[in-house]
Every structure is written in C-alpha cells, then in structure tokens.
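User: Thanks for the earlier help. One more: Very large tegument protein. Can you show the sequence and predicted structure together?

Assistant: Of course, both are below.
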Amino acid sequence: MRQASAAPVTGAAAVRSRVSPTPVLPHVAPVGPAAAAASNDDPALVTALPLPLPSPSTPFALPAPPAPSAEPVSLPGGALPEEALSMRFTLLPGVTLPPGVKEKVTRIADGYFRRTGKPLVVTSGVRDAVSQADAMYDLFRLGADVDTLYRNKGALREIQRAYNAGRAASRPEGVVVAAMGEVIRRQVESGVYISAHLRSGAVDVRNRDMSLSEKRALLDAVLEVGGVTALEETRPPHYHLQVD
C-alpha cells in the first residue's frame, strides 16, 4: 500500500525540527512596539519585560544614607558632650584659648545658646606682643578712649609714643606695629602687662550683631558660669571677658 506523504512542516514546528534535542531557551525579543507585534504573530517569540540598564544618563544609584540628626546626643542627666558644647562658639582664624579659659568660654557659650539659639564668635584670645600692638594700633587709629580700657597709664603712654612717632614719620603700618610690639615685649619682660590678653586670661566676644535681649542673655550666661567679668567696649564693638 502506498503510504500518504507527510504534510510539510512549517512555522514554529519547522524551527523545532531543525534544532538538537537540547532544550531551547526562549528567544528574548527586543523591547519596543515592533517587537511586541512580532511576539503576537509568532508564539515562539517571548517578549521580555524591560530591565533598567545603566547608562551615562541613568546610572545605577545607591540609596542615600539617612541624614544625620541636627540635635547633639545628650549624655545621662541631659549633659552635652564636649564636642557639642564646642560647636556653641567659633574662633576667628589665629585665635587660641588655653584649656582653662576655653572651658569657661564653652560653658558661657552653652548658656548663651540655650537662651538665644545662636553661637558666639570669639574674636580675640591669647596675644603675643605684636598681636597686642596690632590691636592697639587699630584702637589709636579709630580714636578709641584708650584711657578707660587700660589701667596702667604709664605703659599706655609709652606704647602711644611709639605709635605717634611712627605716624608722624609716615611709616607703613607694619613698621609702626613692630615698633609698638617691641615696646610691649620689653614691658612684659619687666613684668608689666598692658592687657590681660598677654596673660591669656582675656577673651573678646563679638556683639555688633546682638540685640539688647541677646546682650542680656550673654551677661546672664557669664553670671551663671561665675569667675568671669564682662566689660562692653565699643571700638570695635565687643564684650571683653576677663577669666579669673
């Protein structure tokens, strides 16, 4: 008997008949409108879901770390660590404070911050002879009432004479300051201190941007800490704190 010839194999079956018995992984069609249409016409095509791929415009990004808390961590009893207290004030460049003076200023700054929510700015601390001369040069130039600022009038007049001589000779500021500094250095060697800044017991705190209530808050903080006196000076505006 003549056997009937098999029907020709077409379409997806033809594809399967030409491959090895090894399982065939499904074809992943490119993503897009044309690929979606092709997958509907041919069941051998499997359309893959689009996966985000890194590119220069859309690189992979790691999740951002949580933002640090703005509030410092409190120690038992509500006390603040020394690092947090030190953030209550800032020192201008070149200003240094000895440990004992810094401890007092830290506590005053904390009391001021609790009352106002603002930090203090320390504009001056320990000075050498030249730094003291530079500060006094500005006072002389601005016409400050230096007699009310310095108790030792003899030492003051000696420094003032060096200033006046340099200005009369039209010498540069640096030369005049150096001459004044030499006078102050000799005074210190003989045990005369025109300013407590030379002894490292004085601190200047900026107050030109303080309101009346903020000034009151600073004075209250000074009284709270104790062992410190405050004198308001106007040229330039600041509080002179004397640490005992």
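User: Great, one quick takeaway?

Assistant: The beta strands are 27-29, 45-47, 89-91, 120-124, 202-206, 228-234, 237-243.
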